[in-house]
Please model this.
Amino acid sequence: MRFNRSPDLIARCFDAYDVQAAVNFARESGAKLSVKGGGHSYAANSVGDGGLLIDLSQMNAISVDSEARTVTVEGGVTCADMDAVTQVHGLATPTPTVSSVGVIGAALGGGGGYLSRRYGLMIDNVISAEVVTADGQRLRAASDENADLFWALRGGGGNFGVVTSLELRLHEVGPQVLSGQIIYPFDRAGELLRFFRDFMAEAPDEFQCYPFCFRVPPIDLFPEETHGQPVLDFVVYHQDPQAVDFVQHDFVQPLREWGEPILEEASLSRYVNAQTGFDANMPKGQRYISKAHDLKGLSDGAIDTMVEFVPRMVGPLTAAYFDPLGGAVGRVDPSATPYAGRKTAFGFHCIAGWMDPAEDESVMAWASEFHSAMAAHASGGVYVNLIADDETARIPAAYGDNYARLVELKQQWDPTNLFSSNYNIPPN
Ligand SMILES: Cc1cc2nc3c(=O)[nH]c(=O)nc-3n(C[C@H](O)[C@H](O)[C@H](O)COP(=O)(O)OP(=O)(O)OC[C@H]3O[C@@H](n4cnc5c(N)ncnc54)[C@H](O)[C@@H]3O)c2cc1C
Model:
């Protein structure tokens, strides 16, 4: 673990009244406050050193209205918890691709995953929120109630209050989807990624594909001669199980025709299993740093930078990928929510991961160099939830033209910056 912090006091809350009491205590005592949902903040914002930690992990209630197609979750619910319950009804809402991420923690910054090109980000599916604000009020925020607060919560992170429960729109998904991967040696990555760019431009919104670069781990799944080698893994996903012939025999076929894949497995899978596909790649308790950009497009320059840096990749858990956005994400007006990157067609994300503190310097230096080189092909924006602990100066850029309105609303809802252990938007 790269962060080792000890709050003075932990309030393990069981309901919104506990949260209200804890917020009041922090405000009145002047204790520094942090709020933990699923605990996956890349910048370690969920746990402060000293002060009061509001731990929401015991707030696990989930209720589905299958007729109205909505789900309401409390602050400690993870994506895996929610998917398991909504899938009983054949329903789901977009969530991140690692199932232990907190639903509300992700949704407060944006929240994207396999379903996002089809159904938007999590914030595009939020119907209402129950919030404890800095002055200790318990409020509902929705398009017809505290509408400004509702706008700010859908991207503005934990800056505006503690969200005790969130109501989200559901869609018909699963129980089966198509998912898998086609893994190639990295030698022809430049050509393959250029091909992928054109392929993705024609892909329907139901299809998602992350070109994921990593070093083959020394496990039996992979031929021994590939262990330690860099690879390009097309992680493929199609929401429609009826498309099995379409996908297996036609649609993904072009991605298969680039020589002999090291590994190929693309088949029908339960939605809940597809949702856990990345979990094992990022084991808990290790050392990570996240480096990301919104890209101008998947330019030759961005591809060449990936091709240059991946073979020099350090850290046994390190990976880098391009994130195709567009679809429903891009059809929302950039001012409709604080999330400013609506016109971004591709994101870039490098997660450097390692175990040994002795490697801190070398891994982080490589990640920073990679990130700086990729900046030449980036728009200047970034998805706020991917900002690292050493990059807080990028927060205004993440919100772009929406930042000024967020500052105004922060002045209104949290003038003393009680909620500051987050991607902070200071009130002045
Ligand atoms: C392994 C991994 C994979 C990821 N994959 C994706 C992905 O596929 N797509 C994507 O969009 N993002 C992804 N993320 C980023 C993720 O969305 C954010 O890190 C998110 O903020 C995590 O939420 P959490 O509740 O798990 O984390 P926490 O660390 O508990 O919370 C994150 C922040 O939100 C605040 N917060 C949490 N809950 C509340 C609440 N109820 N009220 C007020 N504030 C709150 C916390 O104070 C903190 O500032 C990933 C992160 C990790 C570590």
About this structure: The pocket of flavin-adenine dinucleotide is lined by residues 35-42, 45-46, 56, 75, 96-98, 101-102, 104-106, 108-113, 157-158, 162-163, 282, 385, 421-422 (CB under 6 Å). The first strand starts at residue 9 and ends at 12. The chain has a mean pLDDT of 95. The chain has 14 helices and 17 strands.
